[in-house]
Predict the structure.
Amino acid sequence: MKEKEFNLLNEPWVLLMRFDGGTDELSLKDVFLHAHQYKRLAGETPFQDVAMLRLLLAILHSVFGRYDAIGEYQPLNNEVDGVEPEQLLERWKSLWDMKRFPAEIIESYLDKYEERFYLFHPETPFYQIADIGSAKIRTVSKLNGELMESDNKPRLFASRTGIYKEKLGYSEAARWLLHLNGYDDAAMKTGTGVGWLGKINLIYVSGGNLFETLMQNLVFIKEDYSLWDPERPIWELDQNETHDDQMPIPNNLSELLTFVGRKVYLVRQDKMVIGHVITGGSCFSTENAFAEQMTLWKRVGGIKKAVPVFVPKAPNLERMLWRDFASLVAPNTDGKKSGVIEWVTKLKREGLIENSLLMLANLAVIYGTSNSSIKDAFYDELRFNADILTDLGSNWIPRVHDCVSVAEKLCTAVGQLAYDLAVSSMAYSDKRKPDFNSIKKRTEGQAYFRLDEPFRRWLESIDPQKDIERMDEICMEWITEAQKIVRRLGEELIDKVDVHAFVGRMVKINKKIERRYTAPEAYRDFLTMTSKKRLIN
């Protein structure tokens, strides 16, 4: 069955959240027409949403890299003579000031490529390869990111069962197709590894509505104010223009954002998707892949290399985003600012946006053995005053970093208390030692959990413009609150110890030196370590 079916420009398939919390399903054209009236994307998972976000951004780059806000054709890229970065900033500002997209310009552009937006098409199915060969047809349970199970090892506690695992409606299948392309594992795909979004530690800016979110991630110029190459989204490329194995990363964002790293084809029956065929595709190196704007970076190979090498920073599922606040907004030589953060910093410093509050969303996945399946996933958000990105906030960044350090000192102290109490309370010998790492890690995790919401609330309350004279006072307010929270946890630990811990035990250290562990001494050391004098110095 090869006839055309389900055009994504006109059929509803993009899930959006209303401001009352309800959801609607819209076509691509309607998304741009009504983006300012919806809070955000609302697909099945945040990972599916970010794959959808990148598609929407690619369309905006394709349109407004060529047309201005009133629809006049004026391409702005590095192949057009005389283009200045200020022209792109002005174009961005003219769109931002509208507070809604000029949907008729976007619609006119998309209509030119209507044939390329059919989910099913005899020659050019959307994000698929029509002539993929006779590879094995896989079930939709592998396509569905809520299940993410293999063909021969189903989940015990899946979110769907029975017929709902075996079939997908066209709209949902289209959403998961984007997700599959971005986050697919490496099982049976030699040479290409996992999907591109699975390789990066993704971060983006979230606005007050979908229009603001899209605009604040619409990076018109590079960090150094240089221009992008002409836009080349997948629907403008020849269907046969495919690549195998590793290729150079594109130097235009519409091509990067619509990069298809998998050869895939959806199988339909009776108006439902019942399976898919998938093989390996193409990829590019993560080293210095700075065209990618939505990732956190980390320097590798030491600082002695003549040309610094940066790769996407590996995610840490146990580390809240606020603990890395300073490296997000003002990284040292070991890091590099994310492209989208650099972009909104530029917008703020140029006076193009007046947003008082900025929200960053960070999400990443962890793959299992041989990258054959997704093992775990991470999502976090962080809000703070956007003025911190300007000169007004330059003095605040190191102070916030110091306040994060205070939190870390407190958590380390209470972790040490938990260990000392465990030693004091139990029979101790070389053959039966408490698991230091387990005890310390578990207690530190409890402390960070208790500090998490208070720190976020404190960070969000900082107004660099109004609070410049109260910097010391505001920082001390956080230190005082954090100290109370962690000392309260320490008191709870003391209340739970065995009575024998107050007498304590003599313990050999390295089989030679003996040391007495008692609950009172452990608590005394804890209070010393969490005193303001020790925390501040």
User: Anything to note?
Assistant: DSSP finds 17 helices and 18 strands in the chain.
